[in-house]
Design goal:
single chain, 4 strands, alpha+beta, four-stranded antiparallel β-sheet, Muramoyl-pentapeptide Carboxypeptidase, domain 2
């Protein structure tokens, strides 16, 4: 599925991409818009974690297309660059405050954080890959249901 974002967030991401290209790097998007129906399923499947936003308290910015999960790639090869952890590795290594001994990881992470901040995003300390549009960061924005986004969801049995 294509990554869906609201227009302002997509423009900011394009700005980040243009800056990274001057360094021979680019962005790989793992997650962008996420239907709120899926957010509820994530919460049900992970009731003990503090990583999944509880819609009863606060909607994930993914549910309105105002957040992205990204990493860096080498533009020549398309390969992902070394980062502190794998995507969705919910351990202490997932922190955006990496202080490990690998200078390549530190440089890549610092470039990603600086680029995203300059483009108008705010990072999430627990997940080095997660960035939300700074203009909407402190607002609990109503989600966009899948149907309104033009997405048809199926249950696990493959039926409506």
């Amino acid at each position: 599925m294509k990554a869906l974002l609201d227009t302002q967030t997509a423009r900011k991401l394009k700005k980040a991409q243009a800056h990274l290209a001057t360094h021979g790097k680019g962005l790989k998007i793992w997650d962008a818009y996420r239907p709120p129906e899926i957010q509820w399923q994530l919460l049900k499947s992970d009731t003990t974690s503090t990583y999944v936003a509880d819609p009863k308290q606060w909607w994930s910015k993914h549910c309105s297309g105002r957040a992205v999960d990204v990493t860096l790639i080498d533009l020549k090869t398309g390969y992902e660059l070394k980062m502190p952890s794998a995507f969705d590795d919910f351990s202490t290594r997932s922190s955006s405050d990496y202080r490990g001994p690998d200078m390549e990881v530190a440089e890549n992470l610092n470039l990603l954080k600086a680029t995203m901040r300059k483009a108008g995003f705010i990072g999430f300390r627990k997940e080095w890959w997660h960035y939300a549009n700074a203009n909407h960061f402190s607002r609990n924005i109503a989600p966009i249901p899948a149907k309104r986004a033009g997405i048809e969801l199926y249950d696990s049995a493959g039926t409506d």
